[in-house]
Amino acid sequence: MSVHSITPEDAARRLPDCQRILVIGCSGGGKSTLSLALCRRFGLPFLSMDRDFFWLPGWVKREKAEERALIAEAVAQQRWLMDGTGSSSMDLRLPRADLVIWVRMPRWLCLYGVFSRALRHRGGTRPEMAPGCLEQIPDREFLSYIWHFEKRFSPLILKALQHHAPDCPVLILKSRGETARLLDLISHPD
């Protein structure tokens, strides 16, 4: 399976004209950090799947029908950057995206990212999380999700990209260096 893959240089040229960007990938890979940097640089409204759609205060999961209605309303807006994977709503989000950035880091780096953010925000709420969802040390279920993400969820992402956005450009970032390269390119355009 293939997608319309582009380079960081190509993405940097396209980003100033993008109105709707989808940033996807495994937890702990750096999606939110990248998303917030892109929003600051291009003045895009930041939408977090976790904060705005998935979770209610106190780690209460929102009802699926309400979640989908909120996502449908959000993607209808003219400009946004949406941070989060949520494969069950790709049918709503991908057709509206001008660009997809897939943060596809190795699982060890995602695990490191999750543990370091848990320590950094422990007892508090991250900016991309719903109010009242206090950061915790990851449990076994969440660690298993990260460990198996590439095998279980990447094929679903590829299938969704091909089905719902076959012509949408996709930047795949596989290392912190590639992410840094993208941020450098948009910070210092030619």
UniProtKB/TrEMBL annotation:
Domain of life: Bacteria
Gene3D superfamilies per the UniProt record, alphabetical: P-loop containing nucleotide triphosphate hydrolases
The protein's name: AAA family ATPase
Taxonomic lineage from the root: Bacteria, Pseudomonadati, Pseudomonadota, Alphaproteobacteria, Hyphomicrobiales
